[in-house]
Specification:
Elements (H helix, E strand, L loop, with lengths): L1 E4 L4 E5 L6 H14 L4 E3 L3 E3 L2 E3 L4 E4 L2 H5 L6 H4 L4 H10 L5 E4 L4 E5 L4 E5 L5 H9 L3 E5 L1 H5 L8 E4 L15 H19 L3 E5 L1 H4 L6 H4 L14 E3 L14 E9 L13 E7 L4 E3 L11 E8 L5 E3 L11 H4 L3 H7 L3 E8 L2 E6 L22 H12 L22 H20 L22 H46 L3 H26 L14 H17 L15 H43 L1
Parallel strand pairs: 9-10, 9-11, 11-12, 12-20
Antiparallel strand pairs: 1-8, 2-6, 2-7, 3-6, 3-8, 4-5, 13-16, 14-15, 14-17, 14-18, 17-19, 19-20
Helix pairs in contact: 5-17, 13-14, 13-16, 14-15, 14-17, 15-17, 16-17
Length: 616
């Protein structure tokens, strides 16, 4: 909730710098979950004369700290001292400033945020950023949304989805079909009552206004999902849906609302991925109970080296600087068209991004702790979702059954990953001269300013890196699983020696949470999407790896096929390789999502252990 923090208050302050913002968000959210009072600065301030930017995190100290602690929290039962909070922040390599606030400053009071990620959109990118920021993340699908699952969360995040459900009519877009009319109504009610919604690409399109003459093309659920006074600017007047892709690749966006919490800490100019999504046109009073929309980022510049406009998806010609100027996306940059917008629906927060701030630029994100500027938007919106509303959220109660036995996984996964590596080697050895028909223009859309041959070479280069990182990640997960299960036993032992009933309650909840963390990971390993759907959407780690291996095998088998064309996407080596590349990256992200959850659990245990040892 919004509040004011008065000057002369003794505080610890940390500014999430560009090179440490993920670590800072992770530490802050861990302490917020523990129950430590944390404030989020809405304006520039200074502590003992040192200037600090908007978005600074402020820890009130001394009597203010103890007076602000919520009943029933871990901090109330096993309080951390000022020195222990400072020591924890320094152990996370986060620079802090200690002193007194020089002037009054408007702040938000942070509270725990629970992030629901729309599984039918995939959502691995949103989930990996949110979990790395120390937030609790759970994938939920359209059926769960329709059944009321959103009540436990503070925000729903949805990625894109231009794919279709099997055995049904073409225009039933998977995002809308999966939730149905009831799910769309539930989302609107959730946001109207104080929840938050972040939609990117297709996830943003669902919440925009669509002109009535196009509405019959869309699933009926679309009418109940509209939550912001914006429409798509780059439309096709003569198509059934009205939708027209602006293009795919990297562009530079301009932060035009640095005072808006969505954009705290984001540079004035930053690179962002655009992958077919809408560019926005602001309108007024088209959506009942929706505020005017506020642009927070606009299109700034685009180059032919990094971006392929839709006008050149299937063209034999390369995009030149001159031809680029005639495209819709270049015009959007000239006119500074909004690409990320924020508004309110009822009393809930809505942020829509036609672009993909959650997708890493090419060559970024495979290595651990390799972050990019636009990813911060995801963490900011998650923080703001509860900071502005004070919405109370709850963790899932009960354990999900493990889909596979709880045992070390690296040795089980290694043969599968090895087969993918061998297929990648076979594909790389084979010369593509003369250029096969499946790498020539017109077979698949070009993107990122590259030809199909350039995209093929880039994907082949990534596969060995992804396989190496996956093997290393399985090893990390085996170690962390063993460590969490070991802590579970220690928590039970420690609880038996404690007389204080409140501390015992905290220890018991931590013991149960250990099993939840482990079972959630094993559930993610073995999850398989119902066969009604195609490969789109959330899949478990082994399903992703098995499908990637099958795709690589198909690519090898069809490498010398002479007659493949645009209609033969299932056999096309290019399509199979790029899908395998995407699935391996998704599997790596899913493992790291659960690594973050385990690391957060272990950090919480270390904090409780220190507090209870001092108390005893």
């Amino acid at each position: 909730m919004a509040d004011q923090c008065w000057f002369a208050m003794k505080v610890l302050a940390l500014s999430a710098e560009s090179d440490s913002w993920v670590r800072a968000y992770r530490a802050v959210n861990t302490l917020v979950e523990y129950g430590v009072p944390v404030l989020w600065g809405r304006e520039e301030t200074s502590v003992s004369g040192k200037g600090l930017p908007r978005g600074v995190f402020i820890f009130p100290l001394d009597e203010v700290l103890s007076a602000s602690v919520a009943d029933g929290s871990m901090q109330a039962a096993a309080p951390l001292s000022e020195a222990e909070i400072e020591e924890y922040l320094k152990s996370e390599r986060i620079p802090v400033v200690k002193g007194e606030l020089s002037d009054p400053v408007n702040v938000y009071s942070l509270s725990p945020s629970r992030v629901a990620v729309y599984a039918d959109s995939g959502g691995y990118n949103h989930a990996s950023i949110a979990s790395a920021c120390g937030l609790d993340v759970e994938f939920i699908d359209g059926r769960q949304i329709a059944a009321g699952a959103l009540e436990r969360f503070s925000i729903l995040m949805s990625g894109g989805g231009g794919r279709w459900r099997k055995a049904t009519i073409f225009n039933e877009n998977v995002l809308l079909t999966a939730m149905g009319v009831e799910g769309a109504k539930r989302i609107s009610e959730f946001v109207r009552g104080g929840g938050a919604y972040l939609g990117c690409c297709g996830g943003s399109y669902m919440a925009t206004v669509v002109r009535e003459r196009f509405m019959n093309w869309w699933h009926p659920a679309k009418r109940y999902m509209t939550m912001m006074n914006v429409e798509d600017w780059h439309i096709d007047e003569f198509s059934g849906s009205g939708f027209k892709s602006p293009g795919m690749g990297m562009f530079t966006a301009r932060n035009v609302a640095s005072q808006n919490p969505t954009m705290f800490g984001v540079p004035e100019i930053f690179e962002c991925t655009h992958y077919n999504g809408p560019i926005f046109n602001l309108i007024e009073q088209a959506v009942e109970q929706a505020s005017s929309a506020t642009p927070v980022a606009v299109c700034d510049t685009v180059s032919a080296e990094k971006f392929t406009p839709s006008e050149f998806f299937y063209s034999s010609d390369d995009v030149s600087s001159l031809s680029l100027e005639e495209t819709g996306f270049h015009r959007a940059c000239r006119e500074r068209r909004p690409v990320i917008v924020q508004g309110l629906f009822g009393v809930g927060l809505v942020v829509l991004s036609g672009s993909h701030p959650e997708i890493s630029p090419p060559g970024v994100g495979i290595r651990r702790d390799d972050w990019w500027d636009s990813a911060r938007i995801i963490g900011n919106v998650a923080l703001w979702s509860t900071a502005r509303s004070g919405r109370k959220v709850s963790r899932r109660i009960g354990l999900r059954p493990s889909r596979i036995p709880i045992a070390p996984q690296r040795k089980l996964a290694a043969p599968l990953i090895s087969r993918i590596e061998e297929a990648a080697k076979a594909l790389k050895i084979k010369s593509q001269s003369p250029l096969p028909i499946w790498l020539r223009w017109g077979v698949a859309p070009r993107s990122y300013g590259l030809s199909l041959e350039g995209l093929w070479v880039a994907a082949l280069g990534r596969l060995p890196l992804l396989c190496g990182e996956l093997l290393a990640q399985f090893e990390v997960m085996d170690r962390l699983t063993e460590e969490v299960l070991g802590v579970k036993a220690k928590v039970a032992e420690q609880a038996g020696r404690i007389r204080d009933e409140e501390v015992k309650r905290v220890c018991e909840s931590l013991r149960v949470r250990a099993m939840d963390v482990v079972f959630s990971y094993y559930d993610a390993l073995g999850y398989e999407r119902p066969p009604l759907w195609d490969e789109a959407g959330y899949q478990g780690v082994y399903r992703l790896l098995n499908t990637a291996e099958a795709r690589c095998r198909l690519a090898v088998e069809n490498l010398d096929a002479a007659g493949l064309c645009r209609a033969d996407l299932e056999a096309n080596p290019y399509s199979n390789l790029t899908r395998a590349d995407s699935m391996l990256f998704s599997a790596l992200k899913l493992l790291r999502i659960h690594e973050s959850a385990m690391e957060k659990y272990l950090a919480t245990w270390r904090l409780i252990k220190k507090a209870t040892q001092r108390a005893s």
